[in-house]
Amino acid sequence: MGPQQSGKQFEVLFDKLALMRGFYPIRIPNGFQITQQFPLKGFLIKSPFDYILEHNDHGIAFLDLKTIATKKFPTALIKPHQIKILDRLGSKNVAGFLVWYRKVDLVVFFTAKHASLSANLCMADGLAIGKLHDMDLVKLMISGNKSPDNKSSGCPD
């Protein structure tokens, strides 16, 4: 399975699991902008994150979903504007990156600040919320702001 298919699978399962557990996942689509000069041209605008996750008892989270086949996620694959916006949103909310490490089937949350400090997001340095089909979204909402923001000491192979 290629990265695009894996990413789509992650999003579909995240949606279903969130709804089954009483959460309301709001998918943030990419946008399209048209220039105001003639001739009119359009271009795609990438959204800064994938989801707003809401729950009546547990608040709100802003999440970008990532997936990787290895045991470490290179932060070079994250756009600077994503880190900037999610870091700002994370000052009062849970906000950051959910990374699905497919090789070991583990989903781990990282704050934007953590992503800005490290070359790689290592599984052991974030907040593990479970296997793909059994993510603990309540744990994410309760402990996401408390997850480590420190620089990674390096990922084991």
Summarize the structure.
The protein is an alpha+beta fold and 157 residues long.
Task: Sum up the structure in keywords.
157 residues, 4 helices, Trna Endonuclease, Chain: A, domain 1, two-stranded antiparallel sheet, globular, 26% helix, alpha+beta, six-stranded mixed sheet
Notes on the structure:
- By secondary structure, the chain is an alpha+beta fold.
- The chain has one domain: Trna Endonuclease, Chain: A, domain 1 (3-Layer(aba) Sandwich), CATH 3.40.1350.10.
- It contains 4 helices and 10 strands; from the N terminus they run αββββββαββαββα.
- The protein has helices spanning 3-20, 80-89, 112-117, 137-143, and strands at residues 24-27, 31-34, 42-45, 51-55, 59-68, 72-74, 94-101, 106-111, 120-122, 127-130.
- The strands form 3 sheets. It has a 6-stranded mixed sheet with strand order 1-4-5-7-8-10. Strands 2-3 form a two-stranded antiparallel sheet. Strands 6-9 form a two-stranded antiparallel sheet.
- A hairpin with a 3-residue loop joins β4 and β5.
Reading side by side through the largest sheet, how are the strands ordered?
1-4-5-7-8-10
Extended strand count: 10
Broad CATH class:
Alpha Beta
The share of residues in extended strands comes to 25-35%
Report helical residue fraction. 25-40%
The SSE string, one letter per element, is: HEEEEEEHEEHEEH
Alpha-beta content class: alpha+beta
Instruction: Give the assembly state of these chains.
Output: single chain
